[in-house]
Design brief:
Order of helices and strands of chain A: HHEEEHEEHEHHHEHEHEE
CATH architecture of chain A: 3-Layer(aba) Sandwich
Structural class of chain B: alpha+beta
Distance between the termini of chain B: 30 Å
Strand content of chain A: 25-35%
Distance between the termini of chain A: 45 Å
Radius of gyration of chain B: 33 Å
Largest interface: A-B, 36 and 28 residues
Largest sheet of chain B: 6 strands, mixed, barrel
Largest sheet of chain A: 6 strands, mixed
Shape of chain B: elongated
Oligomer: heterodimer
Number of strands of chain B: 14
CATH superfamily of chain A: P-loop containing nucleotide triphosphate hydrolases
Strand content of chain B: 15-25%
Chain lengths: 265, 401
């Protein structure tokens, strides 16, 4: 929806609840269980992304073919400028490809409108960032509730699911704390809870251990391992080889292309 | 609910920056405050004038001399006591014909020596203008026919001379001539600036004409007409009598002019309209300036919270939600400022009115107008920053330090 006139947004907000309510599946009943067989979550074909930096055109991605099926734990690595951030943004529906086709859980998101992409981010993607990106003035519980608020859930259901998500990451006793009252590891756990609370198809983590010491980082990676064991699809973007080693599959990007795609031992 | 969250975030942002929010609101506070204060004072003044018009009655006509210009020569000829006498003798539609003449004289009482405006008139003058006595009596027709040296003092004139109710019966000197103080009037209040009866001393017109001023020039004649519907006829009658009395040839224009309460009301309505326009322009300027201040601070707020916007977008907030959130913030600023401005304006009006001696009327329309303007300013000046926030690229916003 690339319109310059903002009143159009107001109209669409009135339709917001109708669109979203009911689209967020209840916990344990998500899209990945709809069908008996394994679902292909990410299907990318010939994905290209071109940026314009002034008059220069930068080919960040030059033809990516990528399949990630439900339940996989994928690490995405590559040197700076390899295009891994760009690929992550595309996977996370924060951006649209210049060319190519991207099916996320079966639906084509490569040409979706802004509002539709927001909806996909809300219910299909759970983001975990290097810098946690929690809202500073909100409690842990409120931070975790935010995606559900944008999903249009009622307050009681929201509270129940946010509480459950925080319990799942081991923060049952920190719900009323604000981010500045918590350690880095705890903040990242809140962020993981926030990512999981909508029961997303993909947990998309961008350097989740980058701002943590090794021990705390490992505890986060353990948490990821547990989530993977319970069937959560995880895509982990990192530049550290030992972090990537935690994943089951390791994709290396170089110069906008996939250089290698191996299963980890 | 989504809307509740949006409201909560908007208020949270304002509460986190209380000082800044207040400074931002100042423009709106002053703008709305000025509008409310001036409207309240204006409405109060209007009511005061209307009350006065009503108390003076609409069936009064006043005639006074006017300049005439014939072939480039401007002439001015006062009305005289003879003109007044002719009106009194010949008018059929008048229940009272009251001339008045005046001048500034030194008045001595005890060790006081003040310059006071002396008005010579007839006893009907007091009832015509609804003047009330605080002590003593008005002068009578008997005083008038005998050209008695009696004086009725306006409240301020009496006070300035140090004359109290107990001094009725004592004497004072007007222009060196001894007068008896027979009455002191109750305070009446200014009747429009140039002619405050409280500051006057009233004496019989005959005394003024023959003893004090020594001429027969009068300021004007006030005529009370039998009924309001006869005003025009009475005016015609007066015109006829005066033209004959003043020996105007048919081709000459009137060298006198009429003034009635109706006209005063019309004049007042016109000045009210001008006052209203002035008010509107002040309001417009201050609200625009205040609104620009709000737009400015909202742009700062959007920049400061770029990262937060990025997070919210990544978590699934659509543009419309971000837009609404910032719009609501600016509207809240404006409405809050408007509310404070209303209180401030009311208070200012009250203080000003209590010193000016008239009442404050805050009309529901002015409140509605203030609220409407606040919301309008918030919307108008909030749209641009809010749409800028809504259009932020989530990737850029998440990278923002």
């Amino acid at each position: 929806m690339k319109t310059a006139f903002p009143f159009v947004y107001l109209r669409s907000i009135l339709q917001a609840r109708r669109h979203i309510v009911g689209r967020i599946p209840a916990a344990g009943n998500s899209a990945k269980h709809w069908k008996g067989h394994t679902l292909m979550l990410i299907e990318m074909r010939g994905i290209e992304k071109v940026y314009k930096l002034g008059s220069e055109r930068v080919n960040a991605l030059r033809g990516i073919d990528l399949d990630v099926s439900e339940g996989e734990y994928v690490a995405l690595t590559g040197p700076s400028g390899s295009g891994k951030s760009t690929l992550m943004h595309l996977i996370g529906c924060l951006d649209s490809p210049t060319a190519g086709r991207y099916l996320l859980a079966g639906s084509d998101v490569s040409s979706m409108s802004d509002a539709a992409l927001a909806r996909v981010r809300n219910r299909q993607i759970g983001f975990v960032f290097q810098t946690f990106n929690l809202l500073p003035r909100a409690t842990a519980l409120h931070n975790v509730e935010i995606p559900l608020i944008y999903g249009g859930l009622g307050s009681r259901e929201r509270r129940r699911r946010a509480t459950a998500a925080l319990e799942r990451v081991g923060l049952a006793d920190r719900m009323k704390h604000q981010p500045n009252q918590m350690s880095g590891g705890q903040r990242q756990r809140v962020a993981v809870a926030r990512a999981l609370v909508t029961d997303p198809s993909i947990l998309l983590a961008d350097e989740p251990t980058g701002n943590l010491d090794t021990a705390t980082g490992n505890s986060i990676l353990e948490l990821f391992a547990q989530l993977h064991a319970s069937g959560q699809t995880i895509v982990l973007v990192t530049h550290e080889a030992d972090v990537a080693a935690h994943a089951r599959r390791h994709i290396v990007l170089r110069d906008g292309k996939i250089e290698s795609d191996d299963a980890n031992k | 609910m989504l809307i509740l969250e949006i409201i909560r975030v908007a208020f949270g942002a304002l509460l986190a920056n209380k000082g800044r929010a207040f400074l931002t609101m100042l423009g709106i506070i002053i703008g709305v405050g000025a509008v409310i204060a001036m409207m309240a004072i204006g409405a109060g003044a209007q009511k005061a004038v209307q009350d006065r018009i009503a108390s003076m009655g609409v069936n009064q006509l006043r005639v006074f001399a006017d300049r005439t210009t014939t072939r480039g020569v401007t002439r001015y000829r006062s009305l005289t006591t003879d003109d007044a006498q002719a009106l009194r003798n010949e008018m059929t539609l008048a229940t009272a014909v009251v001339p008045d003449m005046g001048g500034q004289y030194q008045v001595k009482y005890g060790n006081k020596n003040n310059s006071v405006r002396i008005t010579g008139t007839t006893p009907e003058y007091f009832s015509l203008r609804n003047y009330q006595l605080a002590a003593g009596r008005f002068f009578t027709n008997g005083d008038m026919s005998a050209s008695q040296r009696v004086a009725v003092l306006g409240s301020v004139a009496a006070e300035n001379l140090g004359i109290g109710p107990q001094d009725v019966g004592s004497t004072l000197r007007i222009g060196g001539m001894i007068f008896d103080v027979v009455g002191i009037m109750e305070s009446k209040g200014s009747q429009g600036g140039w002619d405050n009866p409280d500051e006057n001393i009233f004496i019989p017109i005959t005394t003024a004409q023959y003893r004090l001023m020594g001429n027969n020039r009068i300021n004007g004649v006030t005529v009370q007409v039998v009924a309001q519907e006869w005003m025009l006829a009475a005016q015609g009658e007066m015109e006829r009598i005066l033209r004959r009395e003043r020996q105007l040839r048919p081709e000459q224009q009137n060298d006198f002019r009429f003034f009635n309460q109706q006209e005063l009301a019309t004049t007042f309505a016109e000045s009210t309209k001008i006052f209203g326009l002035l008010l509107a322009s002040i309001a417009a300027v201050s609200l625009i300036v205040g609104g620009i201040g709000i737009m400015n601070i909202m742009l700062v707020s959007v920049t400061e919270r770029t990262r937060e916007i990025g997070i919210r977008k990544a978590l699934g907030a659509r543009r419309s939600i971000i837009l609404l959130q910032f719009l609501l913030e600016s509207i809240t600023l404006c409405v809050l400022g408007g509310a404070i401005g209303m209180a401030l304006g009311y208070w200012v009006a009250k203080v000003m009115a209590s010193s000016g001696g008239w009442e404050v009327i805050v009309t529901p329309q002015s409140l509605l107008l203030a609220v409407g303007f606040s919301v309008g300013v918030g919307l108008f000046f909030g749209i641009y920053p809010a749409s800028r926030a809504a259009k932020l690229d989530p990737i850029e916003a998440l990278r923002y330090e």
